[in-house]
Amino acid sequence: MSAATSATELEERAGALARRFAGVFGAEPDGVWCAPGRVNLIGEHTDYNNGFVLPFAIDRSALVAVRLRRPGQDPEADTDVVRLASTYAQTGLSRAEFSTGGLEPGLAAGWAAYPAGVVYALAQHAGASVPGFDLFLDSTVPVGAGLSSSHAVEVAVIVALNDLLGLGLDRPGMARLTQYAENEFVGAPTGIMDQSASLMGAEGGALFLDCRSLDSEIVPLPLAEYGLSVLVMDTRVEHSHSDGGYSARRQSCERGAAALGAESLREVPADADLSGLDHETQRRVRHILSENQRVLQVAQKLRDGAVDSIGELLTASHISLRDDFEVSCPELDLAVDAALAAGAMGARMTGGGFGGSAIALVRHDDEDAVRAGVLSAFADRGFREPALFTVLPADGAGHVQLTAPGRQ
Q: How many angstroms separate the CA atoms of 69 and 214, rounded?
C-alpha cells in the first residue's frame, strides 16, 4: 500500500466516522484524530525494566471523532458528562457514559475505561480540567492480538483532548500520561513502549526508544526497498495485560533487580553474575539483559542498512521469551516454527505474550509459502485458523484533516 493510498483510505474512514458521529449525537464533531497500533520488532518486557525497545507504528489505527460539550449548547445533559459510542471489538454499536468530575478507577468498565482513564490521568497528573464531551470510536487494530489496540484508543483520545483544550503537552508527556491511565485506572502494569510507538512512530522507520530517559530515534526500516515484509500471525488466542502472568513477570524482574542491588535491571551489566538468584528469577533476568543487547544490535544493523540481516536476532528473542521468560504459548511457538520452516528469515512472538501475535520477516517471494506453511501447521494441530496480514511502518498519532467534516 502506498503512502498516498493509505492517506486516502484514512481520510475516507475519518469522513465516515464523522458522519456516524453526527447521526448519533446530532451535531458534527470538532474533529477526528487517529492513533496507530504497533508491532514490536524486538525488545519485549524490557520497557518496564527501563531498557531499550524497537517498535514501529503500523497502518492499522484507532480513530476518534470528538466534540466538546459546551454550556448552553447541550441542554439535554450536564456539561461534565462524557457520552461515548463505539464499534470497538464488536460489530454492533456500543454506548457508554461517565462524568469527568470525581472520576475514579472502577467507575468505567470495558472499552469505556480507556477514554475514562485518559481523563483521569489528565486530571490527576496534568492538572487539566476536562469538560464533558461526545466521542465516537472506531478501530482497525485487532483486539487481543498483542498489537496495542487499547493503547491506540488512549493515544487517540489524549491527542484529541490535547488539541481541543490547548494543553500544550509534548509527545513524551502524553506517553507518560497514557501509561498512568493504563497502570492506575485500567489496572494493567504496562510500560511505556506502546504509547510511545503510537505517538512517535514514523512511516518507513522504527522507534528506537530508551525507556529510562525517553530519548528516541527513528531508525530506517525500509522493508519494501529490500523486498521484505513483516507478516503478522494473529493466533486469535486473546490475552490481557491485566491478567496475572504479566504482573508476575514484572514482580520477578523487580525482585531480581533488588537482589542485584540495582534500582532496575537497566543498571545491571549484561555479563552480571546471576548465580546468587533463584533459578526462576535468574532466567527472567537473563532474558531482560540479553534482550536489551539484541535491541541494540538490531538498531545498529538498521542504521547500517542491513535490514536483511536481523532475522537471527528476532528468532533468538523468541527463544529467550519462550524458555527464559516463559510468556509464549503453543500457538505462538507453532506460528514461529512453521514460519521459519517455510522460509521466513526470522520470527518471534510480539507483545506481552500468553497469546496474541507472532511476526515473521519474510521475502516477498517467500510470503505465499510462509502463509501456506503456517495455515497448514495450525490445521494439522487442530488450532483455530490464525489471521495473517502484513503491516508497514506508519506515522504516529495526529489530527486527520477533512475537507468537509461529516460530509462527502
A: 34
Calpha distance 346→396 (Å, rounded): 26
Question: pTM of this prediction?
Answer: 0.90
- pLDDT at site 75: 60
Task: Give every CB contact of residue 114 below 8 A, 6+ residues apart in sequence.
Answer: 150, 153, 154, 157, 181, 186
What domains are there in the chain, each with its CATH number?
3-218+394-400 (3.30.230.10), 222-391 (3.30.70.890)
Tell me the average pLDDT of the chain. Answer: 92
Whether 30 sits among the annotated catalytic residues: the reply is no
Q: DSSP of 129-187, one letter per residue?
A: -PPPEEEEEEE-SPTTSSS-HHHHHHHHHHHHHHHHHT----HHHHHHHHHHIIIIII-
Could you give the CA distance from residue 90 to residue 108 in angstroms, rounded to a whole number?
18
CB-based burial label for 14 (10 Å; 0-12, 13-18, 19+): buried
- pLDDT tens for 341-357 read 999 999 999 988 999 99
What's the pLDDT tens digit per position in 279-303?
A: 999 999 999 999 999 999 999 999 9
Q: Which of 80, 194, 234, 395 is catalytic?
A: 194
Residue with cell 486469535: 236
| Rg from Cα positions in the chain | 21
pLDDT in tens, 267-278: 999 999 999 999
